[in-house]
Amino acid sequence: MIRLALFDIDGTLIRSGGAGVRAFGQTFAKEFKVPDAIENIVFSGRTDVWLVRQIFNRHQIEPTEKNFARFFDRYPEWLDHYLHTLEGGPCEGVLDFIAAMQSAPNAPTLGLLTGNIRKGAELKLRRYNLWQHFEMGAYADDHEDRNCIAAAAQKRGSEFLGRELKGEEILVIGDTPHDVECGKSIGAKVLAVATGGIALDELKAHQPTWTVRDLTTISALEVIK
User: Fold this and answer.
1) Which residues, in sequence order, are CB contacts of 110 under 8 Å at separation 6+?
2) In the predicted model, what is the mean pLDDT of the chain?
3) Are 6 and 111 within 8 A, CB to CB?
4) At 163, which CATH number?
5) N or C: which end of the chain has fewer CB within 10 A?
6) CA 223 to mean position of chain CA atoms
7) Exposed / middle / buried, residue 44 (Cβ in 10 Å: 0-12, 13-18, 19+)
8) Number of H helices, E strands in the chain
9) Helix axes 19-32 and 48-58, enclosed angle (nearest 10)
10) What's the pLDDT tens digit per position in 122-163?
11) How many domains does the chain have?
């Protein structure tokens, strides 16, 4: 039985109309005078810290603690701005799926496993009235490698529940191959959803436990039993 369900955010819980990507671009343009920072950068499934490091390297900006702090001090301001100016909202079936999990017998703890920094995750989910559903989480603040974030989520979930969680007691829900692989890295079951732009067949090729078009096409009870 699943005791901890860990949700990715972008493309899984919400679509933000590209607010995060726009905020990255503006932060680099204003703080580092790099107007084309996000050109040819693939954001899907990547962590915020990893992305910043790649852009630093590409534009010969020293990846120092000071420069990371400089970026992440300003990024949330731009993110909040774009979240309120671009069209976005929860992905298909998310609200009903969460409600079904919460009302299930022996309901699992709901948490986050995301490549967003914690502040970015909170801004995004508060914008669409979802933040309050999640009792714990692991973020890019914990590590820039998503597999290491998964390990942090397993450890934090175990501490939250007061006992060591086995991999098979954890469900990871995400929309990219990176989500699938990070779930597998901790031995978790994985529900892959094709709501973030990755084709269903591509997700299936990574062999998650379940692959669905969106969360309207699978029962919460089926995946947590």
Assistant:
1) 5, 7, 98, 101, 102, 133, 134, 135
2) 97
3) yes
4) 3.40.50.1000
5) N
6) 19
7) middle
8) 9, 8
9) 40
10) 999 999 999 999 999 999 999 999 999 999 999 999 999 999
11) 2
